[in-house]
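User: Can you help me understand a structure? I only have the sequence.
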Amino acid sequence: MIAIPEEMSDKKKEWHGSKSIGKVISLTTRNGIETSEARYYICSLKPSVKRFGEAVRGHWGIENSCHWVLDMTFDEDQSRIRINHGTENFALLRRLALSLIKQDNSPESVRRRRKRAGWNDSRLLNILKGKT
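Assistant: Let's start by predicting it. Here is the structure, written out as tokens:
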């Protein structure tokens, strides 16, 4: 039986099949002020501290690298879309576009592939069709 933290016990029935719950406490110091943040993970992994740590680091490594590419290629952090669900919708569209652009196996950077697709309709069409 999984020991569930008290603040999460009301969600227990939604996690049928879970094998473990992990908690990560992040300590950050900014301008001399230390803050902490707790994040919980519901896992299909059997309890293993080493495996859990690898999974969390892997998740954040992917998340951080994807965010960096989106910001450098699409200037995502500069977006001023704020109305209704626009933020979420455009984030989804950017990720879809990034996924399609990455399928193009040309040796150019993602940013250059995006620009060239914007300049050349046949190249854009090939990217949309998945032809590289």
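Now, to help you interpret it: The CA atoms of residues 3 and 21 lie 8 Å apart. Residues 48-132 form one domain. Let me know which part you'd like to focus on.
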